[in-house]
Amino acid sequence: MLKDAKAFSGFSVNDIQKAKEFYGQMLGLNVSEANGMLQLHIAGGTTILMYPKENHIPATFTILNFPVANIEQTVDDLVRHGVHFESYNEGGLVTDERGIFRGGGPKIAWFKDPAGNILSVLEEGA
After folding, report:
1. What pTM does this model have?
2. What is the pLDDT along the chain (126 residues), one digit of tens a residue?
3. Is 3 left (phi over 0), alpha (psi -120 to 50) or beta?
4. CA 18, CA 35: separation in Å to the nearest integer?
5. How far apart are CA 38 and CA 84, in angstroms?
6. How far from chain centre, in Å, is Cα 92?
């Protein structure tokens, strides 16, 4: 029934303007605004909807992953743009001093948007 529907994902934020600056300026994504909501236009033609929610509660899981060719370079570039990477040391999840997890599977580093939603960059082909 829905196999031909062009589905898209969405998530809430508590401040549309802060989200627009973060996603557009800090991350360098194409962002458009309409009807009080934002649309992220990411590679591959995918659009992701961000909508305001006053009583927003950040997700406790990764809501958006960005595959990259070189995680070290990407982390350095994002840090220069003001992005702070999370540090984990719990269970089997231990990140290094730069916030990069290297403990099996792809190298991955997590960061949060201004609304507290968790995002990641992960190295392709690792």
Report:
1. 0.92
2. 888 888 889 999 999 999 999 999 999 999 999 999 999 999 888 899 999 999 999 999 999 999 999 999 999 999 999 999 999 998 888 899 999 999 888 999 999 999 999 999 999 975
3. alpha
4. 16
5. 23
6. 22
